[in-house]
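YM 10:42: ABC transporter ATP-binding protein sequence, as discussed on the call
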Amino acid sequence: MTPNPTAPAVRVRGLTVVYKTPMGELPAVSNVDLTLAPGTITGVVGESGSGKSTLALCLLNAVQSPGRIAAGSVEIDGLGDVVELGGEELRRARGRHVGYVFQAAQNSLNPLKTIGKQLLDLGRSHGVEDLRALVRDAKDLLARMGMDGARVLDSYQHELSGGMRQRVGIMLALVLNAKVVVLDEPTTALDMITQATILRIVREVHDERGLTTLVITHDVGAVAEVADNLAVMYGGRVVEHGPVMEVLGSPRHPYTRGLIRAIPRLSGDISLARALPGRPPTLGTLPAAGCVFRERCDRRMDVCDTVEPVPRTRDGRTVACHAVDAADADADADAGAADRTPTTARRKEYA
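YM 10:58: structure's back
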């Protein structure tokens, strides 16, 4: 899609998040660079424990103890570096500038208050003067998501289904007109029809409101439905990033290929689906040096044991892999040899 110039860009640079453990401070996110282009939807995929949700929380500067942002910045147009914000300034940024839909929608709602009362609390906490207009906007958003706004606002969270609570979470993230929206696992534990509805709503609201959106998920199929760009995380690193259909259509990193190969098939040869060998690393088993994926990689090289691969960008795709670097170098050498004319070759020979 064409980026919306009125939407803000988000630039994550050198972001490192550590958690205090009995073994010391261990990185959950390590030196991540990621840009969310204005007006686009960026999906982040990876196995559980890859650092996806921790990365998302950094957009709110909401990493809780025993975790902390140890290095890096999260710059949002019109807001500045979120990592540097604190106190009242940070509280106002949450909701006003950055909306967040949490992974377990029911856990983010107060079971003792109706949705309407929680909406009014949200408005008052951000200094909204026209609360009636806020309620009208909320009802309109809920109606656009296929629900009776008045009934929902008069309900407690236990009176709503999982899909309805998820839509309420989206409404609360958008009702203050935030321009950056983070959705953490928006389709988890929902049936297929509700998943499709939620994804359609995400895409429609994103386009109509001119948002910059980050979608965290483990569902590659969901990302393919809504995202413009895709970042693949493993062991706290972004190992591949690029346009979603290019990454899914011709994955370059061995981990991305393994994720796609592991997707269950409903037709054709179902035996082609193969699980990734081994297990994803935990904070305590992340290697101190070298590539974090090497123990599960079918393209492992000697350099992978000691040197961490540096993310390199080529043709709009960013990949962090020694094997891909070697293949690119060979391709460049072959292209150079093919382009060299006989005259040029003789000049080099006698130079």
